[in-house]
Amino acid sequence: MASAVFILDLKGKVLISRNYRGDVPMSAVEKFMPLVSEAEDEQVPLPCFTHEGINYLYIKHNNLYLLAVTRKNTNATSIMLFLHRLTEVFADYFKELEEESIRDNFVIVYELMDEMMDFGYPQTTETKILQEYITQDAYKLETQVRPPMAVTNAVSWRSEGIKYKKNEIFLDVIESVNLLVNSNGNVLRSEVLGSVKMRCYLSGMPELRLGLNDKVMFEATGRASASSSKAIEMEDVKFHQCVRLSRFENDRTISFIPPDGDFELMSYRLQSSAKPLIWVEAVVENYAGSRVEYMVKAKAQFKRKSSANNVEIAIPVPDDADSPKFKCSSGSVSYKPEKSCLIWKIKQFQGGKEFIMRAHFGLPSVQAAEETEKKPPINISFEIPYFTVSGIQVRYLKIVEKSGYQALPWVRYITQNGDYQMRMPESIKSGKQTAGY
Questions:
Q1: β-strands 408-422, 168-181: how paired?
Q2: Confidence of residue 300 (pLDDT cuts 50, 70, 90)
Q3: Cα–Cα distances in Å, from 333 out to 78, 312, 318?
Q4: What's the predicted TM-score (pTM) here?
Q5: Range(s) of the domain holding residue 128
Q6: Does residue 97 fall inside a structural domain?
Q7: Which end of the chain is more exposed for a tag (fewer CB within 10 A), N or C?
Q8: Which residues form the MHD domain (predicted)?
């Protein structure tokens, strides 16, 4: 429950504000920037703090601060979520949310702030519903527009009367792998962040039921022994507001009436102990500061029936490297001097395969002793279609609508890199000569 919401520039000047409850003096905003500056000088600034009995909660977006103030001991998470939803709605309306877009759209910003919060309580926050009666055409704002049924309906994220000639729904299960390996080859961090994204083109007000190979569900229904090897245990599961949480808590059924168009149905996290999908080893030989050579080996550590697409391995090189020469058993290599790295691209990397790349650079002899500075890690990007690290599977996707039409569900699985890094090993100082370039 917020008493007032302010949008400020980076200097703390109020661009626009809305007083919802009147129990906090609007002058309280004048103390915000000095308090933030003081916190930044002393420590990492917190997104919320209290001063003289007033709670300040804020987020920074581009060149703006979005600030909510309240005297109540309220749920800070709900207010922070509202501020983030406010930025998303503004960005959907204005394409870019920055100081100029706020100044150019005062009328619409006021309209949106009025509709999205009432007496300090969040209301409609779905852009598609808001766009039905708050438009960006000034002349339309002057007319009396009747709010859509979704605003007063229990299903506030979907309008009634939606019709499609062809009823389809697309479901993407996307998993991103975060990995950090130290210079000795030990895995320091490994986790999988997953999301289930949907594109919904369904008529009417359909109810969907989604079944996954959820370990908790199998255990609850007494099927753990038969299916436990294929079941997964998800952590930190977050759902779109359309999901009936009580139903999920009771029998693990994901039941919902979907928004129209694109949305993220759920997200989850898994602590992964599996082998890294793409393993990269590098040997660096420094020849008395006159040149440096790299031998890089990449191996795809997943099943042969799968392939990683558009693999890019970014290997850091000294800032002053020159005269690049490359050889690789697959793909292509290019030098990016502006990024001080070389990029090894492999368009298709089949599971179980192993490729080698060699690189040679000239180095000014002045830099010979500079071995102590920290080296950036190797960064790896990739995408593996029809594959998930966790083994998550969509067991069924049922669509029920009172008109009884037939709908086509499409399911796709994708695994991609997240923050996927391997630290560089120490250079080997060598005086021997090598050939082959």
A1: parallel
A2: very high
A3: 48, 10, 17
A4: 0.72
A5: 4-152
A6: yes
A7: C
A8: 166-423
